[in-house]
Amino acid sequence: MTKSLLNIIILGPQGSGKGTQAERLEQRLHLEHIETGQIFRTMAGKNNALGIKINNLINLKGRLLTTEFVIKILQSYLSKVPKDKGLIFDGYPRNLTQARALDRLLRLFNRRLTHVIYLPISRGTTLTRLVRRRTCRHCNRKFILGVNLKKGATICPNCGGEIYQREDDKPRAISRRLSIYLKQTKPLIKYYKKQGILITIDGEPPIPVVSKNILKYFS
Q: Exposed (0-12), middle (13-18) or buried (19+): which is 183, by Cβ within 10 Å?
């Protein structure tokens, strides 16, 4: 396996800034940013057999995609990534079954995980951040009201698309998502700590501070 190639996972509860930090690492370290949620949202919007199937499962029936199905899609995706380009996974894996499946998948591509960045924040911070989060329907860029988006804004400053609040970012959904996280995702921390690749970075400070603390491990 190529030991010098970076293959990173970024973990943390909802609102911890995983997506933002993944984007920053993508640019700074020239990585392929793999956000599974966005991959499947994009696919669900396509009018083909696979897109219709995914839309039916996740949007109409509210079901989670099976690990086998996700791995199959990721295998196709990874086959198109240059062999000399590192990866950063954002939003995946979410449980131990997925983590072990991802380990097996990476071995198929002669890769291995090199770092797992964990961004812990409090429950209160999750609620505070997510109820103010808005998303662009067109470019999927995320904003925080009062931070990088004016209150009451309806147009994306990045692409001009419509700004909206995702159902997952409403209080009731946030509480449900946190419960799932505590039950399924937190055990991953122990799993990766045992492998010696876990890096814990406080996710509470402002974005630039968190970025600086992360990059210390890659300088």
A: exposed
CATH number at residue 94: 3.40.50.300
pLDDT in tens, 142-187: 888 888 899 889 999 999 999 998 887 888 888 888 888 888 888 8
Instruction: Give me the amino acid identity at 100.
Output: R
> In angstroms, what CA-CA distances link 51 with 67, 71, 117, 122, 140?
17, 16, 31, 36, 18
Helix (H, G, I), strand (E, B), or coil: what is residue 195?
coil
pLDDT at res. 3: 44
Assess if residue 134 is contained within a domain. Answer: no
For 110, the domain range is 7-122+185-218
pLDDT confidence of residue 201: 97
- If you average pLDDT over every residue of the chain, what do you get? 88
Structure tokens at 62: 């509210």
Tokens linked to 15: 């609102």
Within a domain: residue 139?
Answer: no
Domain-located, residue 29? yes
- Please tell me the distance from the alpha carbon of residue 135 to that of residue 184, in angstroms, as a whole number: 26
Give the 3-state secondary structure of residue 74: helix
| pLDDT(28) > 80 | yes
Q: What tokens does 49 get?
A: 């057999």
CB 205 within 8 A of CB 119: no
- What letter would DSSP give residue 48? S
pTM score, whole prediction: 0.82
Q: Is 161 contained in some domain?
A: no
